[in-house]
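Appendix B, Record 12. Input sequence as logged:
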Amino acid sequence: MRVLLFFVFLATVSVSWGQNWRDSLRVAREAYKNQEYAKAVKYYQSAQKLAPQDVNLSDEMGQSAYKAREFEKAEKIYQQNAGQTKSKNDKARTYHNLGNAQMQKKDYSSAIESYKEALRNNPNDEETRYNLSEAIRRQKQQQNKKNQQDQQKDQNQQNQQNQQNNQNQQNQQNQQNQQKQNNGQNKQDKENPSQLPNKTVDRLLDKLMKEEAETKRKMGGGKDKGNTVKSGKDW
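Logged structural output:
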């Protein structure tokens, strides 16, 4: 009796476990159909965790991530699936999708390698061949833009350096001129140690003239007093 109950329990758990991943898969596919791609990714991942080992949902999961514009996640899914896929056609499709995800990331170098690998497994895939040429074209365009930016950056740095050099030269020239001027003034002061500023000389001359005038006035006043005629007769 106990053995029978044990087998009944196992059967129930197995049915429940199998139903769970199928339910998640059903919700994922329904979400993808309704263009709810982020939700689809979530349920595809849940279904994949619960599904048997021989069930591979990577293609659907990767496509949902790509549609959700989660290109980083899509790239990882396709890279993992590429190592698990055995048939050449499946490998070609996986590497093609991987290249598409890398193109969206503007990782053109990686995309080129992925498209090449896809063509190694399916040389007749014209869509992959076109995508490869487009990836090469965009890589060259990206490199040219980078070269132009680097050249512009170098030119700006050179201009700044030239401006700095010119400023340094100008400052140095000004310092030299100022030094020459100071040296000339010092030499003149040594040659004419008694020389005074013009304003000082003017003040001294003015003072001397005032003092001389005052002296003359005083001297003139004393002479008049000595020659005064006395009134009355001296007899």
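Confidence is low (pLDDT under 50) at residues 1-17, 223-235.
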